[in-house]
Specification:
By secondary structure, the chain is α+β, with helices and mostly antiparallel strands. 24% of the residues lie in helices and 34% in strands. It has two domains: 4-88 and 223-227, no CATH class; 90-219, Gcn5-related N-acetyltransferase (GNAT) (Aminopeptidase, 3-Layer(aba) Sandwich). It contains six helices and 13 strands.
């Protein structure tokens, strides 16, 4: 049985083995999400990624392999590396509470299009509409429109990832993201699971997360591929 530390080293893998098993596609020992849900894959044996990526590329034009420190092997005749995103994993140590002054709304299916449009406005390219099915989403509305959200993405029996933390550019610097992250974190704690999150190294948001009680624990890198 894997302990929590081992599970956190390969969060995509264990999400697809546990809570998100229904979204899993496996090729030769490499696991992927269904491409209309999430474009992430994970592995343990890099020697298997070459064949597996060729298979997954038949149903997805672009995708990520997520790993702490392994380097995937690819078939350069069919797959090309678009970029490697140097990221990090953050894990909640002790939540530092903040006052919730905004009305935070649980987002139901009727908001799927608004969530998709807001994420793509702020972080284009990486979010699929069915990503809504991965976990719970929360939002803040201003002027009768959704302007800030946070959600849940990867999750297992032990942890839930805070993700999709975005605010419309016209509504930033009002503390919306901070309040949404705290709210989402509290909801995860209610389920007796560990809140985690991932972000790019050097992201100014790391300072915000640290002020809320999260700590950087390890590298977690995204290898972004396209089929030729």
């Amino acid at each position: 049985m894997k302990n929590l530390e081992d599970i956190l080293k390969n969060p995509v893998w264990f999400s697809l083995k546990e809570t998100h098993k229904k979204f899993a596609i496996e090729f030769d020992g490499v696991q992927f999400y269904q491409p209309d849900v999430c474009s992430f894959g994970a592995f343990y044996d890099a020697s298997k990624t070459k064949k597996a990526l060729n298979s997954y590329a038949k149903i997805a034009d672009s995708f990520f392999l997520v790993t702490e420190d392994l380097t995937p092997i690819i078939d350069t005749d069919f797959i090309e590396l678009e970029k490697k995103i140097n990221g990090c994993q953050m894990v909640l140590d002790t939540l530092i509470d903040v006052e919730i002054t905004e009305k935070i709304v649980p987002l139901t299916e009727k908001y799927i299009n608004q969530i998709y449009e807001l994420v793509w406005l702020v972080m284009p390219g990486y979010y699929q509409k069915r990503g809504f099915e991965m976990g719970k989403f929360y939002g803040i509305f201003k002027d009768n429109k959704l302007v800030s959200i946070s959600g849940q993405r990867m999750q297992t029996n032990d942890f839930i990832e805070v993700s999709s933390v975005v605010t419309h550019p016209e509504y930033t610097r009002q503390g919306f993201a901070k309040q949404l992250v705290v709210h989402t974190t509290k909801e995860i704690l209610k389920e007796n699971k560990l809140p985690i999150l991932h972000t790019n190294k050097g992201n100014p948001a790391i300072g915000l997360y640290e002020k809320l009680g999260y700590k950087v624990t390890r590298d977690m890198n995204w290898w972004y591929y396209r089929k030729k």
